[in-house]
Amino acid sequence: MAGATFGSILTLSTFGESHGPAMGGILSGCPSGLSLDFEAINLELARRKPGQSAIVTQRKEPDQVRFLSGIYEGVTTGGPIGFVIENANQKSGDYDHLKSVYRPSHADYTYEKKYGHRDHRGGGRASARETVSWVVAGAIAKQIIPQVHIAAYVSAVGPYEFSGTVDQQGLKLVEQNILRAPNLDWAHEMEEFIKSVRKDGDTVGGVISCVASGVPLGWGSPIFDKLHANLGKAMLTINAVKGFEYGSGFAGAKMRGSAHNDLYTESGGTQTNNSGGIQGGISNGEPIFFRVAFKPVATLMQAQEVLDQEGNIKTQSGKGRHDPCVVPRAVPIVEAMTALVLADAYLLDRTTKI
Amino acid sequence: MAGATFGSILTLSTFGESHGPAMGGILSGCPSGLSLDFEAINLELARRKPGQSAIVTQRKEPDQVRFLSGIYEGVTTGGPIGFVIENANQKSGDYDHLKSVYRPSHADYTYEKKYGHRDHRGGGRASARETVSWVVAGAIAKQIIPQVHIAAYVSAVGPYEFSGTVDQQGLKLVEQNILRAPNLDWAHEMEEFIKSVRKDGDTVGGVISCVASGVPLGWGSPIFDKLHANLGKAMLTINAVKGFEYGSGFAGAKMRGSAHNDLYTESGGTQTNNSGGIQGGISNGEPIFFRVAFKPVATLMQAQEVLDQEGNIKTQSGKGRHDPCVVPRAVPIVEAMTALVLADAYLLDRTTKI
Amino acid sequence: MAGATFGSILTLSTFGESHGPAMGGILSGCPSGLSLDFEAINLELARRKPGQSAIVTQRKEPDQVRFLSGIYEGVTTGGPIGFVIENANQKSGDYDHLKSVYRPSHADYTYEKKYGHRDHRGGGRASARETVSWVVAGAIAKQIIPQVHIAAYVSAVGPYEFSGTVDQQGLKLVEQNILRAPNLDWAHEMEEFIKSVRKDGDTVGGVISCVASGVPLGWGSPIFDKLHANLGKAMLTINAVKGFEYGSGFAGAKMRGSAHNDLYTESGGTQTNNSGGIQGGISNGEPIFFRVAFKPVATLMQAQEVLDQEGNIKTQSGKGRHDPCVVPRAVPIVEAMTALVLADAYLLDRTTKI
Amino acid sequence: MAGATFGSILTLSTFGESHGPAMGGILSGCPSGLSLDFEAINLELARRKPGQSAIVTQRKEPDQVRFLSGIYEGVTTGGPIGFVIENANQKSGDYDHLKSVYRPSHADYTYEKKYGHRDHRGGGRASARETVSWVVAGAIAKQIIPQVHIAAYVSAVGPYEFSGTVDQQGLKLVEQNILRAPNLDWAHEMEEFIKSVRKDGDTVGGVISCVASGVPLGWGSPIFDKLHANLGKAMLTINAVKGFEYGSGFAGAKMRGSAHNDLYTESGGTQTNNSGGIQGGISNGEPIFFRVAFKPVATLMQAQEVLDQEGNIKTQSGKGRHDPCVVPRAVPIVEAMTALVLADAYLLDRTTKI
Known about the structure:
- The structure is a homotetramer of 354-residue chains.
- Chain A is of the alpha+beta class.
- Chain A has a single domain (5-349), classed as Chorismate synthase AroC (Chorismate synthase, AroC fold, 4-Layer Sandwich).
- Chain A has 9 helices and 17 strands.
- Chain A has helices at residues 38-48, 108-115, 131-144, 168-173, 184-199, 227-236, 249-252, 257-260, 327-349; strands spanning 5-6, 11-15, 22-28, 65-67, 71-72, 75-76, 81-86, 101-102, 149-157, 160-161, 206-213, 241-246, 278-279, 282-283, 288-294, 303-308, 313-317.
- In chain A, the strands form 5 sheets. A 5-stranded antiparallel β-sheet of chain A has the order 1-2-3-7-4, with helices on one face.
- In chain A, a hairpin with a 4-residue loop joins strand 1 and strand 2 (11-15).
- The longest helix of chain A has 23 residues, at 327-349.
- The two termini of chain A are 31 Å apart.
- Chains in contact: A-B, A-C, A-D, B-C, B-D, C-D.
- At the B-C interface, strand 2, strand 3, strand 6 and strand 7 of B face strand 2, strand 3, strand 6 and strand 7 of C.
């Protein structure tokens, strides 16, 4: 059904609630004959994992993926890859206070009204724990398209936007700081800022930028599955995302055509990249570039008003273990969803010409 | 195949190139028993039509839709609604100069490299003429959900953002000015600005905002077809769109959670609407609100560099009849795609509960 | 939506009612660069056309297809191929007597109860006129896979089954007799039989067999889109079809494994073909072979009981121009649907290996 | 991707190889608020389980399903229902002799040639063990449509067709004999026959009939997802199935229209049911009736020729534990697939009218 599956050739279906027995999914359409690098998969899971640093949630989740099918002697068979990640560290008691109340800017209320019934523990199906399955699938997708290099990084935290240029050097720094920023000084500054926000019992939003280089000319579809539309949908699928722009984005809307157009080089490349690597929904061989806006986490460690099932407004403080700023941990998630979209576009492109 | 169809229950498939014989499509899944208001459909086509005013392209396209099926005695039968819009005013000669060149920031180059073959006339399949079919389908979709009122308007032109508040009064003004702005003074100012841009042989981008009110609580899906993700994909599907944000959007990324959270009223509404009417991918009963960034039109009426098939850079001026600023004519297109997404979500929601 | 589209990579969406303005469809996912043989398309339409001989309906339908997109200078562009076939010969008056009655074993009653509203003329959407669009699409699909030769023929009419062997010689005879049988003597006998049935104002069923040779090893999917399951669904989609069997079929159910198993030759072929060219849902390189059962046409030229909208049983005779036996004209339809399934499997197979 | 998922609103995706760690799947689109009867699910698993009687395989599989999501406090939440069935009893050593050979009329050869790589143990993905997941999903689907009663039974074994009438009384006998026949005498006779076949180291095919009563008028789609086409595809998806017919089926092809047409009763029912409960792809309120042909199991307990990877023909005997006749155990599988198709049609039908 709508909502059950992501992708067209390479498809991911998932299941799981944050405090149910396990998360998991099925990745179908992965070509046969791919020798999987399991260490690379585990590395992506480790990048997403809570409790990595002082500025993220201190929940402990082992996040060990167990592959159940589609792989034989380390090589993909072409069959569906089923996998499960057990939910080991469930402190469901942490959520008893939420059984009959709706937290502001959470999905509690809309889920309960739509479905008439919900698993309130830890957000249930609405929890960002869901993304653990995306990271597994994305780590495989990356291996389907080894020619492509996907690198996301934090480019803004709250009102502070990183103003420097991001080159290959900067991208290499991303995994060397807990903020996942392309500059160590700025990263340090932002960590201090996030700590101060947390001390206030508050949270803050941010922006992740992503570059996919090595995508050859020709991936994507012209009308209803434009490459950037699929990327945009993928990003807007991530919890807490409020906006997506590619290439010149919202800033491009302010420009004149004479300044915005990307003039060609003789080799068919472009001198500028306001197009963000995509023309008419199809990759043009330049790096694909986009930005993703995340709202501040809705769960606060300070008192705020909630609604209860009887229609009363109450005051309640957040409990449990939560991120004061979600962007550092969302970096591998952005990359995973990007990889799923690009690997799918790659496979579909194989059917283009006679 | 991927790219052929839009929607899940209510689906639109389209065909056509701007200088082929006709555009058209099939709208499937439209419920039976709907007495169609054909005047309303024609009105939407008229709103999209070129040549409406001094600030849009002067091409004349009659844009008469011919329905071929799915309607009997004015009422939908539940069968697929096939329709065709003939391409009456084809000045293909206008495009001879483009046969062997690739214009900057157009899809010419990516199409030819992907498919090895293209209809170069008027952009072929990449032309925004495609949107005429979306407007037909969207006008029907609006009638499936009469309780919903969708109103889009121009909120920025180039660097000039409309700074006032937009209320019901403002929304009523939108069809009273050729800019489709919610304020007549600002509209007049912007018209002058666009005329000056055109005089320079240049173009300029802009932003369209859209409000959908009357959407009841519960439409949308929690994970892979979040309501805002489907809206974002729909908007990114429109030609020239570079970005999408809903509710607080990119500005929300700068905020703290304590300021961003939308506190409830006792009736289950919210006091603010940073959520843009959607929580966890599901409508919450508040107005749905989003913004869409359009790049400046790539075709300039001034000399600029193009690439030819032999790899030479040449200088060429745009010919033909083009919009200096696309946003006024894109307003009904934004509404049409919004209507398709919402009517689809409405139908799918009927299958939710036992 | 479900029911709107056929296929996964190569997809066909259709529209039209037999007495509406036109039939038509969109074929998406056809690879670019295919030089279309339009004569071959027209030939298939001519094979399906009514009025070809004394044993089929005498309705005249010019059945001229007009291509609206996806083809430039005779070559496919990779874009959706839109096409329309006007309904030229509408004698809607022939159907006035059906407005308020439901004919036995027609879709009149189920359509009206499901949709609450129907176009009663000529069966509306339920008419086999729909298949004209399938034949257009199938004729293109055949050209996507020129290595494959698809040959269907009439193998039974009413109780008379053709008992001889069908070899290449027989297949060549099929277009040389109006029954489309692989043997001229038997064809002549059957024509006489059908004429006698028609003289009684009656109709009769029959069986079509189909062989697809040249399908290489490896097309199809293992579980939910087994090649024979997709073929079976395609055949059961054709009006009046009541059964499908492939390879040994229902007769195979009576056999022992020791007799049924197809032993290999050293080259990987098989000595027998009870498998019908498919193992585990995947083509094995042997000819694909299946049989399709058609019920007798429900419209009789003799008095029979019908139900009216007030719940009365009345007596009524069929009017209009109808086939006494549908199988001769269904031969190109069986081939068209087979071609759509196989070309789709071919394209999907391109995505199988890394 | 094609092949990954079954259904349109209610969708089942599965994974697993017979000798991998586990089988499992995700059932999406199940409405919320359904209080699941877990005993009924276990009962269906027990019906499918090997080792039930002397005429089926003696493999022991505990077949305990573990639900991982989509159910909270015993009630469906509307989220995807993930489930896993561990593969407890893997005697992989039983299959070492198959590593480099291809068994006749198995999927060994086509899988290896298509994918270049396979899990040879127990048939891998091609194993009928896959159906354990379908039975879990089908058992839930039955609970979505409690008004429908689905009853399958063995109606032929090898050359022996049950010739008596099958009434409600007969259907009640089905679970009282290990053959799952609607008549105890005939069941006993057939058991003896199957035992004699097994004694010969041979296998034999058979036919399963299925009746779905209580389906209201109006389920199904007119063109590309006709209810009987979806049922046919579902049946042809089951391992070893070679044919499908509904209502009068292949026998109907031999009849005249005057005898075949189902005349109405005044209440809108029909006096006969050659239509098999479906008209024009839509249920007509009469019992849905169809028959499914199963070939004899390909694995024999006698010496037969196999092909090895070097292209040599060798002689080999089957090892392991296999069914001499698959139809008794396939009865619950036929019912499960029927339930998935019907529940999906029921949900889709909710979107039909305005």
